Amino acid sequence: MTPSDAGKTPTPRSRFTRRRTLAAVAVVVGGAIGVAACGGHSGGSDAGKAAASGSASSSATAPQTPSPAGTPSATGTTANTQARQDANAAENASDAKITIAPHAGSTGASINKGTKVSVTGGTLTSVTMKAKPTGDRVAGTISADGTRWTPDGKLARGTQYVISAVAKDAKGRVAAANSTFATLSAADSFIGYFTPEDGSTVGVGMPVSVNFDKAIAKSDRAAVQKGVTVNSSSGQKVVGHWFSATRLDLRPQHYWVAGSHVSLTLKLDGVKGAAGIYGVQDKTVGFTVGRSQISTVDTSTDEMTVSRDGKVIKTIPVSAGAPGHTTYNGQMVISEKDQTTRMNGATVGFTDDDGKGEYDIPDVPHAMRLSSSGTFIHGNYWGDPSIFGNANTSHGCVGLEDAKGGKDPNTPAAWFYNHSLVGDVVVVKNSPDKTIQPSNGLNGWNMSWSQWLAGSAI
């Protein structure tokens, strides 16, 4: 969607440190707020409670007996081991806490005011804001005291923006935050924000996901769906599935054929979406499907096997979710990549007795999102190297050995990050947890084809 989409007049014929806190950093992923925190299953629902309200609760699973000298056992880890990892992460945590407004995931931001980045306990070193559809940079200014950034002028109506901010505290320790939000379209029109981006190269598991800024009435979904078409040079049949009144995903029965080109056409100009609300978009965009890369995480062996075009190219030791904080099973699609991000346990319900986060890590390196509710595959520099391949110690994420700052290209996490695309598939198996909900991230592959077809309006 370009700024010009929102500027059109609808046609009349129809229209995310232990003991420290941070506000949730989130992005729009598959139509839900994506929390930047390591969160797997802990007794709450997949996307509803954890993602929408951040209220997932910790499991009451009893801790295992610690191994000698606190060494992780072969079958998992202890509560003491996990707490030690949290403490290690907190030891060098930055005091800088970044807040981005408006609320991440919003699709109704003002074009005139309210957009700002602020920091406490440090100063901003860089803020980058871009219009997502075009990549155009938005000019802005950091205040003289380094605690606030605002754009220099008005934002475009009906446009999705991405903000990346970095700050340092008095000791030079870095914190980062990332956010995506969209400005409000006109009252009598609706806009579809789509992923993947035009001209991008993605993995074979990447669905087309369209998120509307206004709810589409049930009676009008067939007409809207007919105005959203996806075609592939592979000839694969593509069908849409409504996850909600504002989210329509489209995919073929099986993963995209590697090397194919996919086009998305939005012919929504004048199409009714609800009473008195009509579409304004008329455009075609496209993306390329890269090589086929499927990575399989076996939580029983703590090993990830990376296969490319059907051949194993790498085996990587991992540390997945600890007992009580297990990792979801299922086929998960990498929906975003961040060189560095902040993760706070409080945002997904992992708190101490005082209500503050069990962990708050401001510089998690090589983070790749797998779910809206906070499941990531990411670098871990705070864990003892012995845990990787031997023990599950995380709060639900899949951790790979890394270096602080993520600047060592020879670590397993750096290798995987540099060899992964948005849209690549990560399969988790043999976890004691359930299969992830299809709507939790871009994970519709966990539905049978018949279930997928049942969600189509046409």
Q: What this model shows, in words?
A:
With 458 residues, this protein is mainly beta. The protein has helices at residues 3-7, 48-53, 79-91, 221-226, 412-418, 449-454, and strands spanning 26-29, 32-35, 97-101, 116-120, 123-131, 140-142, 148-151, 160-168, 174-182, 189-190, 192-195, 201-202, 208-212, 228-232, 238-244, 247-252, 261-267, 272-274, 277-279, 282-289, 293-298, 303-308, 311-317, 330-333, 336-344, 360-369, 376-380, 398-401, 425-429.
How do the helices and strands line up, and which of them pair or pack?
Elements: H1 3-7, E1 26-29, E2 32-35, H2 48-53, H3 79-91, E3 97-101, E4 116-120, E5 123-131, E6 140-142, E7 148-151, E8 160-168, E9 174-182, E10 189-190, E11 192-195, E12 201-202, E13 208-212, H4 221-226, E14 228-232, E15 238-244, E16 247-252, E17 261-267, E18 272-274, E19 277-279, E20 282-289, E21 293-298, E22 303-308, E23 311-317, E24 330-333, E25 336-344, E26 360-369, E27 376-380, E28 398-401, H5 412-418, E29 425-429, H6 449-454
Parallel strand pairs: 10-19, 12-20, 21-29, 27-28
Antiparallel strand pairs: 1-2, 3-4, 4-7, 5-8, 6-7, 8-9, 11-13, 13-16, 14-17, 15-16, 17-20, 18-19, 21-22, 22-23, 24-29, 25-26, 26-27
